[in-house]
Amino acid sequence: MIGKNILDISFDDIEFLLKNRIDESDVLDYKEKLVKEQDLVKHVCAFANTRGGHIVFGIKESGQGGYPVEITGLLTSDLNKEKLEQIVLSNIVPRLDVKIKSIIIPDSDKSILVVQIPDSSQKPHQSNHSKKFYKRFQFESAEMTENEVSDCYRRRFFNYKQVNQYINETLVDVKEDTVTLNVLVVPSNMQYRMIDTSNYEEIEKIQSIKYPLYFPQNSLPNYPLHPFAHGLTSKYPFNNRPEELQIHRNGSVLYVGYYDHKNENSEINIPYEKVATKIMQTLIFSHTLLSNHNYFGDVMIVVTTKCLSQSVLPNKNGYLSDYPHLDTLNAIIEREHSMPYVETKYEEITSSMMNEIFNHYGEFRCPLFDEQGNYNGYGGRKRRQQQSK
Fold first, then answer.
1. CA pseudo-torsion sign 368, 371, 375, 378
2. Residue 26 domain boundaries
3. 330 has which bridge partners?
4. For 341-368, how does the pLDDT look when each residue is reduced to its tens digit (9 = 90+)?
5. In sequence order, what are the residues at sequence separation of 6 or more whose Cβ sits closer than 8 angstroms to the Cβ of residue 296?
6. Domain Schlafen AlbA-2: where (predicted)?
7. Which of 346, 224, 230 lies closest to 284 in space, CA to CA?
8. 34: domain CATH number?
9. Which of 26, 201, 347, 350 is most buried by its number of CB atoms within 10 A?
10. pTM for the predicted model, two decimal places
11. Which residue, 92, 119, 144, sits at the end of a domain?
């Protein structure tokens, strides 16, 4: 079950824990019954301050640190996921996003409750109830020492420095006479190697994910994966198709594209619908990859669009506006969001970033998105047509 997107966890996974006698660990805890509010907050803090993981309610275990002996379940009528989510959001500092799923036990009025806690990049987290910090230790939620709390703060700030350094080293330089696009998604917690890139068959399955129907057909590169210094790369083997998808061992994903669409004035047209589509696709791909490797904390999202030549924003009639072209374009846009937010708000995130690109040309907003951040490009119209049928 560990390593699965919580949306994909089913009752078969719960039975797997029982049949295979999967013991508790630093990332897995069994509870036969729901616990008090202050205890729930304490346990969630402990997981977030350690390595993240899952709490499974409705399972009787053999003893502390033991394995499941019975799936007892909880009365479905007693479960209120929204209330539990609000308890966590309101009583943990810094604020922490968790995912909660109720899994119905077949032929019964009971369910299993699974709480998925991220390995937080904002650790240490404190309980508002006790004003204390907790960690997972010997299958329990133990109070952290003052030195451990101080060490967490030190690691947090060092980690941000490490992430920023990694971003600067990873972004690809601009290529002459092109619009060079980088879309980089980096886990905010880079303290360990997340992905075994020797297991490329598993990553190939993720690489072939299906995007929403309203996206244009040109998806991310889906060529055979090859090893390189940071992990795995997918690009056209004869190197004459100007795009690449990189999957790094630390969980980072980088899309690089080069576009050289020149108009009759030898200016480069900014292919902004393609840029927006690639950003959204990279966000969807990154979420799928990281969720399958049990990471659903925060990510840094960096988009760069650079062009050393004269460039304009085109539309069907020529230019989008009367504003002059740019001699050079150098747009560097950064965001930090939790993975649950990326999963549901990738259009809104992309809209915000595209608006910043358009600001360079004297425009307030990118016309591909409405004021709420919904994608309204060609694919958006296609989606609305399908929804109206």
1. negative
2. 6-144
3. 306
4. 898 899 999 999 999 999 999 888 998 9
5. 52, 99, 116, 118, 290, 338, 339, 340
6. 24-143
7. 346
8. 3.30.950.30
9. 350
10. 0.78
11. 144
